[in-house]
Design brief:
The protein has 323 residues and is α/β, with parallel strands linked by helices. It folds into two domains: 150 residues, D-Maltodextrin-Binding Protein, domain 2, CATH 3.40.190; 87 residues, Periplasmic binding protein-like II (D-Maltodextrin-Binding Protein, domain 2). It has eleven helices and 17 strands. The strands form five sheets. A five-stranded mixed beta sheet has the order 6-2-7-16-8. Helix 1 crosses helix 9 and helix 3 crosses helix 10. The chain is globular. The N and C termini lie far apart (48 Å). The N terminus is likely disordered.
Length: 323
């Protein structure tokens, strides 16, 4: 059955987000070193499986110690603008407000904090709207300074770029129609002939193809592309980070999120591998936001219907040398 697209409202977003589990508020935790943290500890605060260490023994969430920045930061000041790669269609994280025309969301708030710290005052970001598949490319080619696009930190990506400390913990779940019998990704496999969409160039698509061969993986260029296929009845489900699926539910009253998170998706801000001074500067900004309440305020604004803002993810440091 083909469903018509519903009008997005923040009222609908509140009701939709209530479908997802919330977390109790807590104070920010102090940064720790790679040696002091275990994979199980950095899985908090969202109930997701623990992240595994890479072959070099480092966690994918381990970044470089905060610092004042150097030549990379000065080059941005001299240019007069921070160039950022973002989404314009991921509601609540990075999407274009149809009334103001501005791109806004939790990811955008983190980037605005970095820009303000660089210039000493709120300075408009220079946006480059990209797909998930373009996130590595625009950093490797120095087309942008930073990428914040629900960007999961993993071992493979660390081979070509660098990441900030983790700034949000997400987990992969599944979105289905309200009348679906499936209550998990395993149920979709059991039903048979189930088409599940995920955006190209994402860890969600890779995990779907590798771990759940009993469903037919369908890719789309963007998250919105998956939602369109879902609303047209061309796929039975969408898999993705719970933060992203929350925005989908807000746009489609016939949808629901089911099951427990079956992956850890720690978000970091992507930076080019040869700009470690910029990584260190960003980490200082994120730690300040986690400590002074601005992180929690942003969480409340965009993801507040999940519950009170949880403790921010623990910043894990101790990485040295090139990524």
């Amino acid at each position: 059955m083909t469903r018509t697209r519903s009008t997005t409202t923040f009222g609908a977003a509140v009701a939709a987000l209530a479908l997802l589990a919330g977390c109790a508020g807590a104070p920010a935790a102090a940064p720790v070193s790679q040696q002091e943290v275990t994979a199980q500890q950095v899985a908090a605060p969202v109930a997701v499986p623990p992240v595994a260490a890479c072959e070099n023994g480092l966690l994918p969430t381990a970044s470089y110690d905060p610092g004042p920045g150097g030549g990379s930061v000065q080059a941005i000041r001299d240019r007069g603008a921070l160039r950022v790669g973002v989404s314009a269609d991921t509601l609540l994280m990075g999407s274009r407000n149809p009334l103001s025309g501005q791109i806004e969301g939790f990811d955008i708030d983190m980037l605005n904090a970095v820009s303000t710290a660089i210039f000493g005052k709120p300075t408009p970001l220079q946006f480059r709207v990209i797909t998930s598949a373009q996130r590595l490319e625009v950093l490797e080619n120095h087309e942008v300074d930073l990428v914040a696009r629900t960007f999961t930190m993993n071992c493979e990506r660390w081979e070509t770029i660098a990441f900030s400390a983790e700034y949000l913990t997400a987990g992969q779940k599944v979105l289905v129609t309200r009348d679906s019998e499936a209550a998990s990704i395993e149920d979709l496999e059991a039903l048979g002939d189930q088409r599940v969409c995920a955006p190209e160039g994402t860890t969600t698509l890779e995990r779907l193809q590798e771990t759940y061969p009993g469903v037919e993986a369908v890719s789309a260029p963007t998250h919105t592309g998956c939602l369109v296929l879902f609303q047209q009845g061309k796929v039975e489900a969408i898999t993705g980070d719970d933060t992203i699926l929350a925005g989908f539910v807000a746009q489609d009253p016939y949808a629901k999120v089911v099951g427990e998170a079956f992956s850890a998706e720690p978000y970091g801000i992507g930076v080019a591998a040869d700009q470690l001074d910029l990584v260190q500067f960003v980490n200082g900004v994120l730690d300040q936001a986690k400590a002074d309440g601005s992180w929690a305020a942003s969480y409340t604004t965009w993801l507040g219907a999940l519950g009170a803002a949880p403790a921010p993810p623990v910043s894990v440091y101790g990485r040295v040398g090139s990524p």
